[in-house]
Amino acid sequence: MDTYYHPKDLGHFADMGKEAPELWQKFLDWYTAVFKEGALTEREKALIALAVSHAVQCPYCIDAYSTSCLEKGSTPEQMTEAVHVASAIRGGASLVHGVQMRNHIAKVSM
Amino acid sequence: MALLTLANSKSPLADTATQRTTLDALPLALSFAQATAHAGRAPLRARAVEILQVNVGKRCNQACHHCHVDAGPDRTEVMPDAVVDACLRFLERSGVSTLDITGGAPELHPRFREIVTRARAAGRHVIDRCNLTITQLPNYGYLPAFLAQHQVEVVASLPSFAARQTDAQRGEGVFDQSIAALRQFNAVGYGVEGSGLLLNLVTNPVGAFLPASQVALERDWKRELTRRFGISFNRLYTITNMPISRYLEFLVASGNLQAYMDKLVTAFNPATVDGLMCRTTLSVGWDGRLFDCDFNQMIELGVAASAPQTIVDASVEALAGRPIAVGRHCFGCTAGAGSSCGGTIASPG
Description:
Number of strands of chain A: 0
Mean pLDDT of chain B: 95
Helix content of chain B: 25-40%
Strand content of chain B: 5-15%
Oligomer: heterodimer
CATH topology of chain A: AhpD-like
Largest sheet of chain A: none
Low-confidence stretches of chain B: none
Number of domains of chain B: 1
Number of domains of chain A: 1
Distance between the termini of chain A: 56 Å
Structural class of chain B: alpha/beta
Helix content of chain A: 55-70%
Largest sheet of chain B: 8 strands, mixed
CATH topology of chain B: TIM Barrel
CATH class of chain B: Alpha Beta
Number of strands of chain B: 8
Low-confidence stretches of chain A: none
CATH superfamily of chain A: AhpD-like
Largest interface: A-B, 12 and 15 residues
CATH class of chain A: Mainly Alpha
Radius of gyration of chain A: 19 Å
Mean pLDDT of chain A: 95
Shape of chain A: extended
């Protein structure tokens, strides 16, 4: 079955450097530095990346960071909790905009 | 739940030649010999033997999903007396400093205690590769105190500090029994600072992916095993799963074989080659045949024809400098930070 997102396409990510190699290299250097151990461990950063992958719903990122989390030593339970954190923020972000709705209701209502 | 060994389930992969041809049929970017040549280390040659790793048999009280030995309760291969005697003679007359006893569950061998006692009496460092649950069987509760008495280093398998992952790899109920065993080892001083009794844990990934950073994982494990169970240990060794035997069967059945091999090849790290365990280890099979490592032993890839073929004929001098027998499975030891029976080899490349 054909699909818009194909898992093998992730292997072609570096093709994005073909038309703009300098920008690609800057991105790559920055990206690599971001995920190195610092104040946060590599494992913690991978968990954050997994959560964000779900928030932005990037299928390539979900595959890549599911593997990365396992390879950094996270358990499926920890990874599931990270996805719940992302989901809670997404859900909460919708709900908190209810305040905007209520403000508007208050403004236009008698 | 009892798992079947490849041998007992009549799997085609029970045949070691089929394992090798399965790997050889894959399209890969390069061969292992090419990879070591690029690293300036071809052909790979052995140095002096430092570790005698003796596989005393394939019998085991467990049958783990990833087992490279295809060990299990239904296996009958046990090292005969003549081979045990030859191993001890070799150890006692050579300058080899370490005896690494493995299996199966090595403690099931009827002469396990004698092997340990004689090796220690000869002043050798002894490692027991313990599956932990063996200590929970009737008649084997003596092990922690016995091993402590002889100052044997215990290298114990535990894939995860979480029950579900451990049981998924090693069988239902293994985690709880392993925790009970670790508490017993701690109780006799193993893993306790200042005791001199080494309790090192081994973790293999529970799936088709590479192991985590050993340093980072050890830090997490020490925190979690202390917090959850009050257990202490010395070192954590991360070991990459080799694409052979039951792990190969898992890779084939789950459709992960090609991607896993591509991952191993892509992650080839030249900095691991100098420290590969095959260069300083001599592996002895239950029947006395010699191999460059326990993995080669399990796919029946023997030492070079120019070297002695059995422990009866072995000498340190005749084995030094032999070319190492290699195959595609060897990429498992050179991926990322590398892998050996003593954990990682080098910094990730």
